[in-house]
Amino acid sequence: MKVFRRRGGVKALNSGFTMIEMIMVMILLGILSVTAISLFATRDAYSARVVADQILSQARLAEQVAIGRRAAPTTTLTLSLSGADFSGVVAQGGYVSQREVDASGVSISWSQSATTSCGGGALPATITFNQDGDVINPASGGTTNTLICVSGDTAYPICITTLGYAYEGFCES
User: Fold this and answer.
1) Cβ–Cβ under 8 Å, residues 147 and 158
2) Which terminus of the chain is more exposed, N or C, with fewer CB under 10 A?
């Protein structure tokens, strides 16, 4: 039997991981991380995040429709919760965009002019935009901030400013 030796007469020692060992370690780490992440994530947290993203999306669409189409003096964003289904509807004249998502375990509250804390009325809510994209309060005739709070395991406050811009966070006064 032949033994391969290096030039100095010393047998070469292999050290480190082989490619197969490295791949097996990566696979095991992947399996463990997926298992560990599922222990921390719940459906309520995920549903609340999806609903909050949908509200942001529909609010930004409502502002764009109000500014861009100008087919009617106002554009409305109607948010409603029916059982476990959330619905956001943007309407102006003959234009309607409706999006629905599952809202199991999610509660939604809203108020106009409240800026620093979640609370207020339950859905349905109708937010009205004028042709400049500003949020108007039909009761007072003026512009106003609107705060929407989506709560599951985590609360997601969403502010729609008087200028119609929607962002995640509490409204600034």
Assistant:
1) yes
2) N
- Token pair for 133: 């994209």
The 3-class SS string of the chain reads CCCCCCCCCCCCCCCCCCHHHHHHHHHHHHHHHHHHHHHHCCHHHHHHHHHHHHHHHHHHHHHHHHHHCCCCCEEEEEEEEECCEEEEEEEECCEEEEEEEECCCCEEEEEECCCCCCCCEECCEEEEEECCCCEECCCCCCECCEEEEEECCCEEEEEECCCCCEEECCCCC
Please check whether residue 138 is in contact with residue 125, taking contact to mean a CB–CB distance below 8 angstroms. Answer: no
Q: Give the start-to-end residue ranges of the domains of the chain.
A: 43-168
Tens of pLDDT, residues 132-170: 999 887 666 677 788 999 988 888 999 999 899 999 999
Question: In which residue are the tokens 């969403």 written?
Answer: 158
pTM, entire model: 0.73
Q: Rounded to whole angstroms, how far apart are CA atoms 86 and 100?
A: 5
